[in-house]
Amino acid sequence: MTRRLFGSVRSRATLAATLVVAVALVATGAALLLSLRSDLTGQAETEAASAARAVAVELSDGRPYDKLTGLDEDDRPVQIVDERDRVVAVSEDLERVTGTGVDAVRPGQGAGGRGGEDGEDGDDGEDGDDHSGRSGTGGSGGDRRAGTGEVDSDTDFGTGTATIDGTTADYRFASVEVEFEDRGKFTVHAGAPLAAERSAVGTATTAMLIGFPLLLAVVAGATWLVTRRALSPVEGIRREMAAITASEDLARRVPVPSTHDEVARLALTTNETLAALESSVERQRRFVADASHELRSPIASLRTQLEVGAAHPGLLDLDGAVADTVRLQTLAADLLLLARLDAGERPGDARFDLGALAGEHAGGRAGVTVAADAVPVAGSRAQVGRVLTNLLDNALRHARSAVTVGVRAEGEWAVVSVADDGDGVPEADRERIFERFVRLDEARSRDDGGAGLGLAIARDVAVRHGGTLTVGRAPAGGALFELRLPRAR
Question: Which CATH architecture has domain 348-486?
Answer without folding.
Answer: 2-Layer Sandwich (3.30)
